[in-house]
Specification:
This protein is α+β, with helices and mostly antiparallel strands. The protein is built from six helices and six strands; from the N terminus they run βααββαβαβαβα. The protein has a domain of 77 residues. It is globular, with a radius of gyration of 17 Å.
Length: 168
């Protein structure tokens, strides 16, 4: 999961990432449609190339690229049996520089740590992993971020606080 300080940076990263992914046509009959939606939830484009492919960028190169761009790189749904760093590699490799991981709301962290004790000292974000609006989890999880007391928080401030936490 990548969180960006602004839209411009996200679009710059999309150009970089697209250049490093294979161009494989999406099979809608297998993977479903890949729509781009506007602010009114209207389809504005359908992407032809499959988005769930790998790339020729190593995880360390990815982390470093995102770090230079001011973004936060967080291994997502590491508690899942597929499409996660833990499922693919068996754990979060020591070379990974971030100390923040994301798990789904169904994850029982003590049970997860019993299986992966090497991951017990990381910081965690609990997300709903929602792909549809009704699946978004109710509030109930909190994360203490290293922030100065401010009345307003923009995306850049939030991402920078996550980046600070990732380094602890």
């Amino acid at each position: 999961m990548c969180l960006f300080p602004d839209v411009k940076t996200a679009l710059e990263f999309e150009d970089y990432w697209t250049a490093h992914r294979p161009k494989i046509k999406n099979r809608v009959d297998i993977f479903g449609n890949q729509y781009v939606m506007n602010d009114d939830d209207e389809v504005v484009e359908e992407l032809e190339n499959l988005l769930s492919t790998g790339s020729d960028v190593s995880m360390i190169e990815l982390y470093d690229k995102l770090d230079v761009m001011g973004a936060a790189a967080i291994p997502a749904h590491i508690d899942k049996d597929s499409y996660s760093m833990v499922a693919s590699l068996g754990t979060v490799p020591e070379e990974w520089k971030g100390r923040l991981l994301e798990v789904s709301r169904r994850c029982n962290l003590p049970e997860f740590w019993d299986k992966h004790p090497e991951l017990a000292n990381y910081h965690y974000i609990v997300d709903s992993d929602a792909h549809q609006l009704p699946d978004i989890a109710d509030p109930g999880y909190s994360l203490k971020l290293p922030l100065e007391k401010k009345t307003d928080m923009d995306a850049k401030t939030f991402v920078n606080a996550l980046r600070d936490l990732m380094r602890k």
